[in-house]
UniProtKB/TrEMBL annotation:
Main function: HflC and HflK could encode or regulate a protease.
Protein name, per record: Protein HflK
Gene Ontology BP terms: proteolysis
Domain called Band: residue spans: 38-218
Main localization of the protein described in the UniProt heading: membrane
Keywords, in A-Z order: Hydrolase, Membrane, Protease, Transmembrane, Transmembrane helix
Pfam families xrefs: Band_7 (PF01145)
Assembly and interaction partners: HflC and HflK may interact to form a multimeric complex.
UniProt lineage: Bacteria, Pseudomonadati, Planctomycetota, Planctomycetia, Pirellulales
Gene Ontology CC annotations of this record: membrane
Regions crossing the membrane: 23-43
Amino acid sequence: MKFDPDDWRDFDWRDFDWAQVRMLWLIPALLLVFVVFTSVYTVQAESQGVVLRFGKFVRNAEPGLRFKLPFNIERVSMVPVKRQLKQEFGFGTTGASNPNQFSAEQTLERGMVTGDLNAATVEWIIQYRVRDPKLYLFKVRDPDSTLRALSESVMRTVVGDRTVDEVITVGRQEIEADALTQLQDLVNKYELGLSIDQVQLKNVNPPLPVQRSFNEVNQAQQEREQLINVANGEYNKVVPRASGEAEQKIQAAEGYALKRVNEAEGDVARFNAVMTEYLKAPEVTKQRIYIETMREIVPNLGKKIIIDENASQILPLLQLSAESTRNPS
């Protein structure tokens, strides 16, 4: 059929169906919007996207605005790799965002047997992160439930290797460290794609029927430790002081001994010097020693009366005071 241009001049545009034309443009526009909507997605800062193409893993998507094939050819699963997750054992915190944070069998979880065949109630928590999203999503069917089972198994093993006193009192840090190491080894072995950050013991107590008696024993041990510490404090306060006083007296005695030895040696040296001079001139030396001695003694005699050695009696010399002696009448 040959097109005739004159037909357009005879065509009445008022009879043209414009609604059909708008419908023809609306379909591609809707298709374009659907393509854009199914191709653009956003990965949050704390997450990582796992892109699947027809259900098969293709790549990991980092945080930010990303694109994928439309029409659900590629799908994205968001995994919170930077969020720290928590699981509680033996108790449960209400309002938890993680559905696997606690279980309904809390009584069974916290009941354990120690290495010395005693019962104990142990409550603990684990904190972990998703390290490998691919392993976390596809290697194990339910990694969070598997982690709960592994954590309970490890804690029962660690507690079963220790006595009840170690579990309740002094062995808490060692239990936490051993449980963390063993749990991380099992997580790596099962390829859960998780990283265990912390294992922390919470309430660790003996069973309720013996809890009161155990608390009394524990209190007695604490009082014993307190008394020992007080005694050690007194010992550390008294003994160093006594040692210091003893050392001071020893040093004083040694100083006094050195002083006496030096004085004796000085006296000996002086005597030897006098003896040497005496041997050179006995009379002169004797006279000099006598004069020096009298010079030291006479001033200390006070009032003196000198008489003749042949006198038969001493006359009563009354009122011979210093004044009458200076001014005789």
